[in-house]
Design brief:
With 329 residues, the protein is mostly helical. The chain is built from eleven helices and three strands. The chain has two domains: 179 residues, no CATH class; 80 residues, no CATH class.
């Protein structure tokens, strides 16, 4: 059985290794550049409170590359979905579609032993592929995570145990879709759709709220968010004088309109206008409140999200297992 499973899934394993090798070659020039620029930022004290004279040039070089990555890297979140579509979805649907399930279930092993062997073999391929891609992407994005914090989406999505957990969930969705639909192409399409339907709410709605966020009040307008560089900022809002009530968007627009009466907006540049507006707001007692998740919660959040993915994966595989066990021979 082990030999059969390897024969059936070896091309998928080799394809994943080849894609990871190509990805490593493609990202190496960018990674080496980022490591070099990050070393300059570290040596110049550019990330602390006493930046050196060369920090402006080094930070511009870093931002030019990291901003490009911000538009490219999120697209790689499709990789777990592709693992589910190309490894999980065909696992049983191909057997049903080709009719080979009749031969497989008439051999010396029971259908459930055959199913367990197939699932464990494909799961191993999926997990090893996810670990390989995670290693490449973590090495590539480590400089960006060091400067911007790994709690950003790029850092969180491609570091630690979360990438493998999402890959296993996508695999389980694919197995369930293939078992239910019994056709390869429809199962692949449903797998990608199911992965997206789960991924987006978890990433954008649940993840920021795994633990109650921390609030930091009384921040002056001219000093940014006032939280640590590696913390995950969720929001920054204006606070009325007295520091106890946040202003709504409409209320702050009215305050800004009042402030403009004492600022010559027509002749001031954008930078001058912002500086004068911040000075006016601070002088009249307005402050800010920052809502954020502290950086030391990173691994806690990783564990929570991985647990969500693995529980859903186990549920999907259990349903698929039940469907196969009840299918007439």
């Amino acid at each position: 059985m082990t030999w059969l499973v390897w024969r059936q899934h070896r091309l998928e394993a080799l394809a994943a290794a080849a894609v990871a090798a190509v990805l490593a070659v493609v990202v190496t020039p960018t990674a080496l550049h980022l490591y070099q620029v990050t070393a300059l930022l570290r040596q110049g004290g550019c990330l602390g409170g006493s930046p050196g004279a060369s920090c402006g040039t080094a930070m511009d070089a870093f931002n030019a590359t990291s901003h490009t990555l911000q538009g490219i890297v999120p697209l790689l979140n499709i990789l777990p979905g592709l693992a589910g579509a190309f490894i999980g979805a065909p696992l049983l649907s191909r057997e049903y579609e080709d009719g080979t399930w009749r031969l497989a279930w008439s051999q010396g092993v029971t259908r459930l032993a055959w199913l367990r062997g197939q699932m464990l073999g494909a799961l191993a391929v999926t997990a090893l592929s996810a670990a390989l891609f995670t290693a490449v992407l973590t090495w590539w994005l480590s400089p960006v995570n060091y400067v911007n914090g790994r709690f950003t989406n790029n850092g969180f999505d491609f570091t630690g145990i979360v990438p493998a957990a999402w890959a296993l969930l996508a695999f389980a969705i694919g197995v369930l879709a293939g078992t239910a639909l019994r056709r390869v192409v429809p199962a692949m399409a449903v797998t990608l759709a199911g992965y997206a339907v789960i991924r987006f709410p978890v990433e954008y709605l649940l993840r920021p709220r795994y633990l109650p966020p921390v609030e930091k009040w009384g921040l002056p307008f001219a000093e940014g968010s006032g939280i640590a560089r590696n913390d995950w900022e969720l929001g920054l809002g204006p606070v009325a004088p007295g520091g106890h009530a946040m202003l709504t968007g409409a209320q702050f627009d009215q305050v800004e309109h009042t402030a403009q009466a004492s600022i010559n907006r027509a002749t001031a540049s954008q930078a001058t206008y912002v500086a004068e507006l911040n000075h006016w707001l601070t002088a009249h007692g307005y402050t800010q409140v920052a809502t954020y998740q502290p950086a030391d919660r990173f691994w806690t959040f990783q564990g929570i999200e991985a647990a969500i993915c693995l529980l859903l994966a186990l549920a999907a595989l259990a349903v698929a297992y039940r469907l196969v066990s009840r299918r007439p021979s």
